[in-house]
Design goal:
30% of the residues lie in helices and 24% in strands. The chain is of the alpha/beta class. It has a single domain, classed as FAD/NAD(P)-binding domain. A hairpin with a 2-residue loop joins strand 11 and strand 12. The longest helix has 23 residues, at 103-125. The chain is globular and about 65 Å long. Residues 37-394 form the FAD dependent oxidoreductase domain.
Length: 443
């Protein structure tokens, strides 16, 4: 795709906007220990939360990171938080649209809501200054059919998760969001926003303060059973562990080929605008909600914590793009929603891998005696934090993974071996379907 040169500010950066306040780094370079109770692979939200809880229980824990802590998706997410809004969402534009909730569905919703409570408790318990607040979330309906489906879903969310949501009237929608592109919307009051990089930094500080060893540049090459436990061969030497947890999500590598072929890495791109004039700052999302769409290939956005910029994200394309190319796509999508931003420049462009699964649900389970917590499906802040927490407590309490609603094996597909070759075709198909349905939508 051609890059629109005049959309970039003079100080345009390919550094994530969030890294202005905290960026991934590691000056300590802790040594890889010889032996631990639990070795966790992946220093993201899930890995650090799991380590934190295990250490509180008195276990010796090492977290092994291939790069430096926070270099994956955890510090570059959209910073939206909710408890169950995305559970069961499939790329059909609709979700959970039957009136009766199954026992499985109820359990998933209730546990997702518990995950949100865990997230809030961790922020409070460890006094993490991450600009978190319950600002509310707007679910922006792409079509009237999507809006009808959400009317049914909303009843379930309110009943089983305490989402405190309601269908907005056209007048209320206009007062909440200065865009005319949507068929309507739902406001979920039990949802919010967080600075993802500062939240990660707080988890990292808390884990290390309790004695968790976090090792940078210690990518795992092999894991083998040994002496009733496991030996992990890393780029910085081996470590023996009684138990192993894989928490690599969209960055799951070939050292676990069976898991790699069950998690689909898809890049979620984001941009931040230049600082906006006061009239735009105050009018776009006047009550400072976070926004997520109901499209198959959805966009999500919010104002920056200081209220000066629009942060806008989505799956810009499903093939390889550089940061300027993805910024051009997202800028066009932004202007389609807010024509008043046509002359506003892009100041930042970045991205990170989201871990998708074939059933569009997060999972925690075991394979070959190894625990895993994978598949955020776009809800990384609260869901990956919760999966790490839950996995730790399953280990501590000696419970079976099936006691969790998410404790089912990751599904696979015989045509997928870890390289998402089909995503350009499938993603483009979904985008075309979104466009066609929008054009055919009833007035």
């Amino acid at each position: 795709m051609p890059v629109t040169a005049n959309i970039f500010s003079s100080d345009f950066s390919e550094k994530p906007y969030w890294w202005n306040d905290w960026h991934p780094h590691d000056a300590s370079l802790a040594e890889v220990p010889k032996e631990v109770d639990v070795a966790i692979v992946g220093a993201g939200y899930a890995g650090l939360t799991c380590a934190l809880e295990l250490r509180k229980a008195g276990l010796d824990v090492v977290v092994l990171e291939a790069d430096v802590p926070g270099s994956g998706a955890s510090t570059v997410s959209g910073g939206q938080t909710s408890g169950g809004a995305n559970i069961g969402k499939k790329p059909t534009g609709r979700s959970l649209d039957s009136a009766a909730a199954s026992g499985r569905e109820v359990a998933l919703l209730q546990e997702a809501a518990e995950g949100y409570r865990i997230f809030e408790r961790l922020v409070q318990e460890h006094q993490i200054d991450c600009l978190y607040r319950r600002s509310g979330r707007i679910v922006a309906a792409w079509t009237h059919e999507h809006l009808d489906a959400w009317k049914i879903k909303l009843e379930k969310l309110n009943h089983y998760t305490g989402a405190d949501g309601h269908l907005m009237s056209p007048d209320e929608m206009r007062s909440e969001l200065d865009s005319s592109i949507y068929a309507g919307g739902v406001l979920l009051k039990h949802a919010g926003q967080v600075h993802p990089s500062l939240f990660f930094a707080g988890l990292l500080k808390a884990a290390r303060s309790l004695g968790v060893t976090v090792c940078s540049h210690a990518g795992v090459k092999h894991i083998v059973r040994q002496d009733g436990g496991f030996r992990l061969d890393t780029a910085r030497g081996p470590v023996k562990a009684k138990r192993v947890v894989i928490a690599t999500n969209g960055y799951t590598g070939a050292f676990m080929p069976d898991l790699q072929r069950r998690v689909i890495p898809v890049t979620s791109h984001q941009i931040a605008t230049e600082e906006l004039p006061d009239d735009l700052r105050n009018s776009l999302i006047p009550n400072d909600r976070v926004v997520a769409e109901t499209k198959r290939v959805s966009n999500y956005y919010r104002m920056s914590p200081d209220g000066k910029r629009m942060l806008f994200g989505g799956r810009a394309r499903f093939f390889k793009m550089d940061r300027r190319e993805s910024a051009s796509v997202l800028h066009a999508q932004l202007v389609a929603r807010f024509p008043q931003l046509r002359d506003i420049k892009v100041a930042y462009s970045w991205g990170g891998f989201v871990g998708l699964t074939f059933d569009f649900l997060p999972h925690l389970n075991m394979t070959e005696g190894i625990y895993y917590a994978l598949g955020c499906n776009g809800s990384g802040v609260t869901m990956m934090t919760y999966l790490g927490y839950k996995t730790a407590h399953l280990i501590i309490d000696g419970q079976a993974v099936e006691t969790s609603a998410f404790g089912r094996p990751l599904p696979s597909n015989p045509l997928y071996r870890g390289k998402p070759w089909f995503m350009p075709l499938l993603g483009t198909y979904y985008q075309v379907r979104d466009d066609l349905e929008k054009r055919r939508d009833r007035p």
